[in-house]
Amino acid sequence: MLKYAVKRILLAIVTVFIIAAITFFSMNAIPGGPFSKEKAGDPAVQAVLEKRFGLDKPVHEQFIMYLGNVLRGDFGISLKTGRDISQTISESFAVSARLGGMAAATAVCIGLVLGAIAALSRGKWPDRLIIFVTTLFVSVPSFILATLLLLVFCLMLGWFGVWSPNNPNYVLPVISLALYPMSYITRLTKSSMLDVLGQDYIRTARAKGVRESLVIFKHALRNALIPVITYVGPMTAYILTGSMVVETVFTVGGLGTKFVSAINNQDYPMIMGVTLFLAILMVAATLISDLVYKVVDPRISFD
Amino acid sequence: MKEFNTDKLPKKQILSMQIDLSQFEAATDEEKTQHEKMRESTTFFKDGMRRLFKNPLAVISIIVLMILVATIVIVPEIYPYSYSQMIEVNGKRDKTAKNLAPFEYSKNELKAIEQGQEIFPHIFGTDELCRDYFIRVVYGTRVSLIVGLFASLIVLVIGLLYGSIAGYCGGKVDLVMMRIVDIIYSLPDTLMVILLSVVLNQVIGTALQGTFIARIGTNMVSLFAVFGLLYWVSMARLVRGQILSIKNNEYVLAARAIGTKPSRIIAKHILPNCMSVIFISVALQIPSAIFTESFLSFIGLGVQAPMPSLGSLANAARGGMQAYPHKMVFPALFICLIVLSFNLLGDGLRDAFDPKLRR
C-alpha cells in the first residue's frame, strides 16, 4: 500500500511538473513578449525591464524561477486587467467551487439511486426508461443543454430568475452541470451492481434468509459503490471544464467565465495561470480517488 | 463412385457375413442433401453482424447516420445556395432576407415570385448575414462529422502502432512506453486541448498563412494535432492489453516457431483478433471528438469563419436566442442526433461483437 501510495504521489508530482513545463514553454513560444521591441522603444529601458523580470537569463533559469513562483502561489499578472492572477483565482473560484460541489453532490446522489433502481429492475420498464434517459443526456453537449434550459425555464416560463451576484440562483446551472456525470454514474452503478448481485456472497446471504432490503443495502450496494470512486477524478475534471461553459451561459462570475474571457482577450498569462491551477486540482482529485479506492478495496492490486 | 453390380460380387457361402447388397437401395440426391449440415457455417464477423441487425436501436442509428452522410454529400451539390453566399435576387444582394423564419420569403423575394420567378424556399430560414441556414447546418454537419472521423482515425493509427509495439515487445520497452502513456494519460485532456489550441494558433497561424490549411483554420489543425498528441493513449492501452492476452496463444507460438517476422505476426495473427474491441472503441471515440470540437467552438477556438461547424453555429445563435430560437434548435438537434446515433451504434457493436459479454 505504502509503495503504491508513494509511486502514485510521485506520478502526480511528475504530471504537475510536466504541465508547468508545458504552460511555461507555451508562453515562451507565443511570439511577442511583454517587453517586445515595438512597445519599449529604448533598448536601454528594455534591458532594465528584462533584467528586472529576469527575462535576460537563459530559458532554463527562467523556468526554475517560474516553478518557484508557482510553488509560492504566484501565477503572474494578467495582461488585460493588470491584476494579480492568483488573487483573481482565489476570488472567483469560491463561486465555481460552490457550483461544482453542488453539481457533484447532486450527480453522485441521484446517479447512485437511479443506477441501483436500474440494476434491481433489470430488463423491466424502470431499467429501460433510466437507460434511455441517461443515454440521451450523455449525447447533449453541456452548452446546448445549458442554453436550452436558460431559454425555456428562465426566459420563456420565468420559473427561475436570471443569475445575479446578489441573488444567485443555483438550480439551473447545477442541473446543466450535473446531468452528464449523473448519467455516467447511473450507468457505472448499474453495471457494477449487476456484477455484485451475481456474486456468491449475495447468494449465501439470500440462502441464509437475510432480508432482501438488507441484502441490497448492506451486501450489494456497498460493494457496488467501489467502482464509482474511480470516477471522482474524471468527474472533477468534467465539472471544472464544464463550468467554463455553464458559467458563461448563465453569466455566473466564476473562474470559468474568467477563463473563457481570457481566451477571447488573448490574455496569455491568465490562460496559463488558470490552466495550471485547474490542472493541479484535477491531478489532485485523481490522486485522492485512486488512493481512496485502494484503501476501500484492498483486493485490488496494482502492478 | 464405383457402381456395384450385385452379380459380380463373390459367391456367398452359407455362413458368410457378406452383406447382400441386392436388398439395399441407393440413396437419391434428395436424401443425400438431408445428411448435409443443417446450417451454413458462420464466421465471427457474420455472427456479429447478425446480432447487430437484431438490435433495433443500432439499426435505427445506422439508418440515421446513412441518411446524414447522404445529405451532407448530395445536398451541397444540388442546393441552389452556398454556405458563404448571401442571398441574391436578380443578381442584387437582398438585404431584406435577414433572420428569416423557416420557409419564409423576404420582401424582395416575394416581389420576384409575383413576377413569375421561382425561388427555392429557405428550409431552415436565414441567418443574420442573409445566408441560407439549411445549407449552413448541412455544412456544419459535414465539418463536425469529418472532424470526428479524422480525429478518431488519428487516434486509431497512433494508438494501434504504439500499443502493438509496446504489447508485442514487452519487457523494458513496454515498461518505458507505458510509463510515457501513464504520464500523458494523467494530463487533464480538455485543458491541454485548450492550451495547445491557444498556443498552436499563435505559433503555426503565421507560418501557414495563405496555404490550403489556413482555409480549414489553424484551430482545426491544432485540434487534430492535440488529438494526435493526447487522445491516443487510451487506445494504446486498450491495444496493448488485447495483444498481451492474445500473444500467448498457441497459434502465435506456432507462427513464431516457423520464423515469421514480428511485424507479420502482429498484422496477420494478433490484430485481426482484437479488431472488434478496437472498432467499438473507435465508434465511441467519434462522438467524443465531436463533443470536443463543439466545446472548443463554444469557447472561441473552433473552425475559421465563414466555415460553419455545428458547435460554432449553435454558439453564434445564442445571441438572438429569444427572437430566433430555431437558429439554436437546428444545429443542437443535429449534434444530439449524431452523437446519440454513434453512442447507440457503439453500444450495439459492443453487445454484438464483444466476446466477453456473450453468455
Structure description:
The complex is a heterodimer of chains A (303) and B (359). Chain A is mainly α and 303 residues long. Chain A has a domain at 85-265: MetI-like fold (Orthogonal Bundle), CATH 1.10.3720.10. Helix content of chain A is 77%, strand content 0%. Chain A contains 13 helices and no strands. The longest helix of chain A has 36 residues, at 85-120. Among the domains of chain B are: 86-130, no CATH class; 140-308, Orthogonal Bundle (MetI-like fold), CATH 1.10.3720. The mean pLDDT of chain B is 79. Chain B has helices at residues 29-34, 44-54, 56-78, 107-114, 133-169, 171-186, 189-207, 212-216, 218-247, 250-257, 262-298, 310-316, 325-353; strands at residues 88-89, 92-93. Chain B contains 13 helices and two strands. Helices cover 66% and strands 1% of the residues of chain B. Chain B starts with 28 loop residues before the first helix and ends in a 6-residue tail after the last helix. A two-stranded antiparallel ribbon of chain B has the order 1-2. With 359 residues, chain B is mostly helical. Classes of the chains: A mainly alpha (303), B mainly alpha (359). At the A-B interface, helix 1, helix 7, helix 11, helix 12 and helix 13 of A face helix 6, helix 7, helix 11, helix 12 and helix 13 of B.
Question: Helicity of chain A, in percent?
Answer: over 70%
Q: Helix count of chain A?
A: 13
The topology string of helices and strands of chain A comes to HHHHHHHHHHHHH
**Which stretches of chain B are low in confidence, meaning pLDDT under 50 for 5 or more residues running?**
none
Largest sheet of chain B: 2 strands, antiparallel
* CATH topology group of the domain at 140-308 in chain B: MetI-like fold
Radius of gyration of chain B: 31 Å
Class of secondary structure makeup of chain A: mainly alpha
Write down the overall mean pLDDT of chain A.
Answer: 82
Assigned CATH class of the domain at 140-308 in chain B: Mainly Alpha
The fourth-level CATH homologous superfamily of the domain at 85-265 in chain A is MetI-like
CATH superfamily of the domain at 140-308 in chain B: MetI-like
Mean pLDDT of chain B: 79
CA-based gyration radius of chain A: 24 Å
Multimerization state: heterodimer
